[in-house]
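Anyone up for a design puzzle?
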């Protein structure tokens, strides 16, 4: 044993590492930043119900506080100008935190113009109606609502389960495993139209097949999609026939049934009830008056908030007159007041961050916002906006995720303004959206009996001034959902 101990040595080392720990206030601010206008309204009302120190409506100001009233003439709309906000933005001193989140619909902020809303039910309304018929726990309902909110126009779930789990934990205080989320997802996948909530085309088709009545033909369809999906996608009918052990006539019958399935179940709801842009509640509203751009945050029906004067007085009374036995009451009152002030401050910070970020985006994409021509969009990445605003890239990502701006020529997702750049032959950097536009144009007018190959598309782009490799053309084509040439052939 002595010899063994002599051969062993223990080495102790010291190292310094920086670990960034977010404070509860920073976590709250990050959560609010990621919420859309509708989600924020729901969150504010929930906070009002949970915290008695937070109240809705105009604050009862004492004489000494009257000078701090939010409704000063210079506290109106958030106006965009060509000048950047100064580093010591005066918005930081808008008002006392106890009396801040005033959103009077008749005042200077809020809706700048009526948003056209159709009388028909929206895409989401139809899914929510079916959700209300389910026997779910409140926790499962919260997960289901988040899943539905993540379904795209075509009816597909555009987030993986781990991303949903992370978002629920970070933004909604719900620690849900991927297995739990998948169980709720399966409930939604039972909704109409069949295929809603699928994570990819294969799952979408299988959901539709499994809704059919049992038959030998149904079994064959399910085999094709579950175990021969690549062959089906590439129209390799002979291989499918051989693997199924059936003749060409039977194979044709199976394929004919499969082709009847809807690869875009969301679109089957129709344009009048789809969640088109007119149904989206914008987070920003832009006005273009003879080239003069201005915008406001759309605060919709978000309540006006202030800290309860009654709770403030109660705490002062406890401090002055309370005995040791009443310490717990004083601690409780103070915690609620601190929470209310922190929440109001987080809302204030959210508005400042959204305003500065939107201003930077408009400045970087001003030709587009002035003319409404998507070909005028410039290459822009999150880093460009981060550098212009002084915020972290992660902050810009939260601000722009799932938020919309209403303009005179349509309502747009903020993420749509972030595009890669491609070089023209003249050396000019142009948004990849121009490549997308050309690809849609030429494939939409091609001879469908002899569709264009990726190599031919690359040649067309070269003629128009874009030197793009065939492999890159294939990537761009896939990004905008254009199938390969053999699948576009009639």
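Challenge accepted. My sequence:
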């Amino acid at each position: 044993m002595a010899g063994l101990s002599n051969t062993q040595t223990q080495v102790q080392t010291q190292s310094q590492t920086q670990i960034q720990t977010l404070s509860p206030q920073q976590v709250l601010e990050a959560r609010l930043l990621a919420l859309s206008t509708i989600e924020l309204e729901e969150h504010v009302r929930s906070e009002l119900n949970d915290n008695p120190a937070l109240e809705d409506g105009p604050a009862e100001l004492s004489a000494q506080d009257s000078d701090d009233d939010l409704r000063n003439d210079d506290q109106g709309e958030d106006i965009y100008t060509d000048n950047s906000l100064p580093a010591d933005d005066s918005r930081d001193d808008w008002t006392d935190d106890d009396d801040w989140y005033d959103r009077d619909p008749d005042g200077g902020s809020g809706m700048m113009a009526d948003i056209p809303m159709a009388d028909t039910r929206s895409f989401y309304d139809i899914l929510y109606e079916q959700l209300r018929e389910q026997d779910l726990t409140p926790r499962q309902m919260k997960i289901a609502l988040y899943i539905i909110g993540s379904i795209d126009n075509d009816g597909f779930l555009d987030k993986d389960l781990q991303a949903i789990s992370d978002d629920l934990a970070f933004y909604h205080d719900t620690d849900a495993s991927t297995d739990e989320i998948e169980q709720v997802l399966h409930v939604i996948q039972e909704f109409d139209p069949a295929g809603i909530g699928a994570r990819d085309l294969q799952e979408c088709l299988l959901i539709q097949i499994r809704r059919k009545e049992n038959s030998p033909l149904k079994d064959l369809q399910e085999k094709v999609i579950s175990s021969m999906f690549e062959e089906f996608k590439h129209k390799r009918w002979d291989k499918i026939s051989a693997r199924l052990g059936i003749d060409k006539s039977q194979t044709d019958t199976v394929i004919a049934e499969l082709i009847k399935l809807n690869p875009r179940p969301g679109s089957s709801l129709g344009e009048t009830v789809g969640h088109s842009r007119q149904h989206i509640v914008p987070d920003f509203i832009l006005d273009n008056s003879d080239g003069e751009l201005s915008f406001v945050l759309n605060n919709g029906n978000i309540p006006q908030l202030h800290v309860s004067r009654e709770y403030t007085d109660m705490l002062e009374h406890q401090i002055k007159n309370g005995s040791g036995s009443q310490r717990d009451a004083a601690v409780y009152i103070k915690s609620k007041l601190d929470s209310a002030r922190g929440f109001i401050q987080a809302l204030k910070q959210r508005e400042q961050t959204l305003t500065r970020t939107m201003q930077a985006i408009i400045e970087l994409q001003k030709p587009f916002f002035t003319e409404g021509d998507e070909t005028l969009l410039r290459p822009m990445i999150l880093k460009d906006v981060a550098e212009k605003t002084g915020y972290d890239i992660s902050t810009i990502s939260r601000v722009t995720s799932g938020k919309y701006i209403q303009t005179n020529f349509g309502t747009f997702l903020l993420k749509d303004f972030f595009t890669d750049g491609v070089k023209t032959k003249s050396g000019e950097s142009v948004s990849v959206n121009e490549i997308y536009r050309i690809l849609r144009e030429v494939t939409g007018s091609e001879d469908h009996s002899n569709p264009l190959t990726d190599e031919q598309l690359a040649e067309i782009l070269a003629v128009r001034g874009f030197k793009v490799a065939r492999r890159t053309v294939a990537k761009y084509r896939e990004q905008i959902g254009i199938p390969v040439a053999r699948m576009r052939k009639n």
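A detail worth pointing out: Residues 123-188 form one domain.
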